[in-house]
């Protein structure tokens, strides 16, 4: 087959463009592959600490490539979230442990020739409670490498936030008596629900100083779980519904339940209430 002059020129140009595009694609791929990424090992850790004692949690940072020199990565404690502030939620975990209760190193080193570095976080139970408090650690951005990230929220709504992988620790005070929990699952009208927990002297138990609630309308599922460490004795749970129709909106069934938790994490339910009018009162004994 013969190509005319115009066809020959067109064929050669097409071939050259194809080669150039192919080279550019290869170059872009090489640049992406050669970028040095640093990331925390995303980890959720739970520790239970006896009051006055200390627990240590190990964290790791990882690199996508080795280096012939040490790399020093700066760490930060995450104490706030744009997304949480703008949405009024707690979807992004942030630190709630008192600053005096933890120690986080300022930096962690990835040794030359290695793909990971290790650091230790210590938490001391001075101001912990039985519900648990969080410590969240992230990486300080650097121009020396990329950080593995994801996003949450919406820029137009002002809720947009860039998140890196983080170490999240929940620290809880160890209960040496009766570990009791109150779990609240509301119907569609959570704003109608409140509850109280009293000791035998009709005083609020340690951990609450008044009625708990009301909750949010339109949110189904577990809205609240409170933990208490109670000595042997008699206690009274009172659950209220301000509209006098209990915890069933006709479609969705809510409830409040009491259960104990042993040292191995095994639960024993001792009471559950859902169907009542304006209030439900339950008195029980812990040994």
Give an overview of the whole structure.
With 287 residues, the protein is mainly β. The protein is 13% helix and 43% strand. It is built from 2 helices and 19 strands. It has helices at residues 5-34, 82-87; strands spanning 37-40, 43-49, 54-63, 71-77, 102-103, 107-110, 116-124, 133-139, 146-147, 149-152, 161-164, 167-173, 178-186, 193-198, 221-230, 233-241, 255-261, 267-273, 279-286. The strands form 5 sheets. A 5-stranded mixed sheet has the order 5-7-3-1-9, with no helix packed on it. A 5-stranded mixed sheet has the order 2-12-8-4-6, with no helix packed on it. It has a 4-stranded antiparallel sheet with strand order 15-13-17-18, with no helix packed on it. The relative contact order is 0.14.
Question: Segments where pLDDT lies below 50 for 5+ residues?
Answer: 1-32
**How many β-strand runs?**
19
Question: What helical percentage do the residues reach?
Answer: 10-25%
CATH class of the largest domain: Mainly Beta
Brief digest:
With about 290 residues, this protein is mostly beta strands. The chain has two helices and 19 strands. The chain has two domains: about 35-175, Immunoglobulin-like; about 180-285, Sandwich (Immunoglobulin-like), CATH 2.60.40.
Ordered list of secondary-structure elements with their pairings:
Blueprint: H1 5-34, E1 37-40, E2 43-49, E3 54-63, E4 71-77, H2 82-87, E5 102-103, E6 107-110, E7 116-124, E8 133-139, E9 146-147, E10 149-152, E11 161-164, E12 167-173, E13 178-186, E14 193-198, E15 221-230, E16 233-241, E17 255-261, E18 267-273, E19 279-286
Parallel strand pairs: 1-9, 2-12
Antiparallel strand pairs: 1-3, 3-7, 4-6, 4-8, 5-7, 8-12, 10-11, 13-15, 13-17, 14-16, 16-19, 17-18
């Amino acid at each position: 087959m013969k190509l005319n002059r115009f066809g020959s020129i067109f064929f050669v140009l097409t071939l050259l463009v194809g080669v150039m595009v192919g080279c550019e694609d290869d170059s872009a791929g090489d640049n992406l592959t050669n970028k040095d990424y640093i990331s925390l090992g995303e980890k959720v850790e739970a520790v239970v600490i006896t009051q006055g004692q200390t627990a240590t949690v190990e964290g790791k940072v990882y690199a996508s490539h080795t280096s012939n020199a040490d790399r020093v990565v700066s760490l930060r404690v995450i104490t706030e979230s744009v997304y949480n502030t703008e949405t009024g939620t707690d979807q992004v975990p942030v630190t709630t442990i008192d600053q005096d209760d933890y120690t986080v190193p300022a930096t962690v080193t990835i040794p030359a020739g290695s793909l990971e570095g290790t650091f230790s976080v210590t938490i001391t139970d001075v101001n912990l409670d039985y519900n648990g408090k969080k410590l969240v650690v992230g990486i300080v951005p650097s121009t020396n490498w990329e950080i593995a990230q994801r996003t949450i929220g919406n820029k137009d709504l002002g809720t947009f936030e860039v998140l890196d992988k983080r170490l999240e620790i929940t620290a809880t005070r160890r209960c040496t008596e009766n570990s009791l929990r109150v779990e609240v699952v509301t119907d569609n009208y959570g704003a109608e629900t409140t509850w109280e927990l009293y000791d035998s002297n009709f005083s609020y138990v340690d951990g609450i100083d008044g009625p708990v609630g009301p909750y949010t309308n339109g949110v189904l599922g577990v809205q609240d779980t409170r933990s208490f460490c109670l000595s042997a004795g008699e206690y009274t749970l009172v659950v209220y519904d301000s509209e006098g129709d209990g915890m069933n909106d006709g479609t969705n069934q809510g409830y409040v339940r009491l259960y104990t938790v042993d040292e191995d994490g095994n639960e024993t339910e001792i009471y559950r209430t859902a169907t009542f009018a304006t209030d439900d009162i339950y008195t029980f004994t812990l040994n």
